[in-house]
Design goal:
Blueprint (H helix, E strand, L loop, with lengths): L1 E7 L32 E6 L2 H9 L4 E2 L13 E7 L5 E3 L3 H6 L4 H5 L3 H15 L5 E5 L7 E7 L8 E8 L5 H10 L2 E2 L1
Parallel strand pairs: 3-9, 5-6
Antiparallel strand pairs: 1-4, 2-7, 4-8, 6-7
Length: 187
């Protein structure tokens, strides 16, 4: 079992697969670093709470209470998942994997969708049946690992179970830790 984390704009009472619910997947998916909407749905996570928060809020220099609210004033949430993979994750931090797929470390970390989406397309076409998704180091906090699970038909990937929801705020311990690691002003 693997613990995974994802921040999302929670709306209390939102129905499954609708905006504000943890299971909502915006469509079309075109702008994520590993997206290939014609092949699979992209479900992005972090292996840590700090990583999920850093990836979600890195573009804000000052983390004031309003950063953790939705446009409608609801508190954003950190979803905690348990994932029982049916297949392993392909680790893009493993030199043997990079050699096998003819990928360089700089191609994994580059902020260029043409490059990363093509890598994901190649991996999925040649090995998608062997893996549940991919994992790589966070571009915001390289000490943290990010995860993409492949899905279909906007349904959560097989083996993914919601284990809890935590409201985010400037006092959440992982928000405090992520802010410190990213050198963000808190409050």
């Amino acid at each position: 079992m693997i613990e995974l984390y994802r921040c999302f704009p929670r709306v209390p009472g939102a129905r499954r697969a609708k905006p504000g619910h943890w299971s909502y997947l915006p469509r079309p998916q075109l702008h994520g670093r590993w997206d290939n909407a014609d092949l699979y749905d992209s479900w992005y996570f972090s292996r840590s709470q700090v990583g999920a928060i850093a990836e979600s809020f890195y573009n804000k220099q000052r983390w004031v209470p309003e950063v953790f609210l939705t446009p409608h004033g609801h508190t954003r949430a950190l979803a905690v998942f348990e994932f029982e993979p049916q297949k392993p994750l392909l680790d893009l931090d493993d030199a043997a994997v990079l050699l096998e797929f003819d990928i360089t470390p700089s191609q994994v970390v580059v902020q260029d969708l043409t490059t990363t989406q093509e890598i994901a397309r190649r991996i999925y076409r040649h090995a998608g049946d062997r893996f549940s998704g991919i994992t790589w180091w966070s571009s915001q906090l390289p000490s943290q690992n990010s995860v993409l699970l492949w899905g279909a038909d906007a349904a959560p990937p097989p083996g993914l179970r919601l284990a809890g929801l935590e409201p985010l705020s400037t006092t959440h311990p992982s928000v405090i830790d992520a802010a410190a690691q990213l050198y963000r002003v808190l409050g």
